[in-house]
Amino acid sequence: MSNGLALFDFDGTITVKDSTTDFIKYSCGCCKSIAGYILLSPVMLAFMLRLLSSHDTKQIYFAFFFKNWDYEKFQKIADEYCERIIPTLVRQNALERIRWHKERNDRVVVVSGACVNWLQKWCEEHEVDVLATELEVSEGRLTGRLSTRNCYGREKAKRIRAQYDLNQYDSIHSYGDSRGDMAMLELADERYYKYF
User: Fold this and answer.
1) Of the N and C termini of the chain, which has fewer Cβ atoms inside 10 Å?
2) Would you say the C-alpha torsion 103, 196, 88, 113 has a positive or negative sign?
3) Does the reported pTM lie above 0.70?
4) DSSP three-state, residue 150
5) In this predicted model, what pLDDT tens digit does every residue of 173-195 receive, in sequence order?
6) Secondary structure tally for the chain: helices H, strands E
7) Which residues lie closer than 8 Å to 84 by C-beta, 6 or more apart?
8) Is the torsion defined by CA of 151, 61, 134, 105 positive or negative?
C-alpha cells in the first residue's frame, strides 16, 4: 500500500476553465459580470504585470461583486453551482487520476485559489481534502475581504506545509497548470505540469 500525498490544483487542472470567473457569471448574471470585468480590467492588467498581488486582486473582485451579500444566500448559490456546474467542467482524465491515487491509498488534496464555498461539497463527494481561499463574513454578510490569504503561489506551499507533515509521506505527486502552482509543484517528487 502506498503512503503518498497527491496535490491537485483545481482550476485549469481538474477543470477545463476557471471556476471563479464562471461562478461570478453564474451568481451575478452575464450583464453584471461583463460590466464588472470591463470596469476591473485595469486591476487585472496590474496583476498580469505583477504590480498587484493575487490576494489584493481577488479581494478587489470579490468586494465589487459580493460585498454585503447575505452569506446564506451566497452559500446556497455556491452549493447549486457545485452540484449543477462543476461536474460539467471536470476533466474525466483528471478524475480518473484522482481515483488512481485513492486506489493506491494516497492522500489526495485539492489546493486551490478558488473559494472553498463551491469546492467543499465536490471534495467531500470525492473524499478528498481541500485547501482553498476563504471569505470573511461579519454579522451574516460577506465583507468583500478574504479571511485567509489567497491560496495561490507560495501561499499554496505554505498552506500545505502547515496542514501536512511532508516527511511522513513516501512520495508526493503534484499537478498544476499555471505559475500560481509552481511553489506547490516544487514540493513534489513527481511533478505534472499541464498533464491533463
Assistant:
1) N
2) positive
3) yes
4) coil
5) 999 999 999 999 999 999 999 99
6) 10, 7
7) none
8) negative
pLDDT tens digits for range 108-124: 999 999 999 999 999 99
Cβ-contact 99, 170 below 8 angstroms: no
For 177-187, letters b (16+ CB in 10 Å) and e give bbebbbbbbeb
pLDDT tens digit sequence for 91-148: 999 999 999 999 999 999 999 999 999 999 999 999 999 999 999 999 999 999 999 9
Task: Report how far residue 97's alpha carbon sits from residue 116's, in angstroms, rounded to the nearest whole number.
Answer: 22
Residue by residue, DSSP assigns 38-104 as HHTHHHHHHHHTTSS-HHHHHHHHHHHHHTT-BHHHHHHHHHHHHHHTHHHHB-HHHHHHHHHHHHT
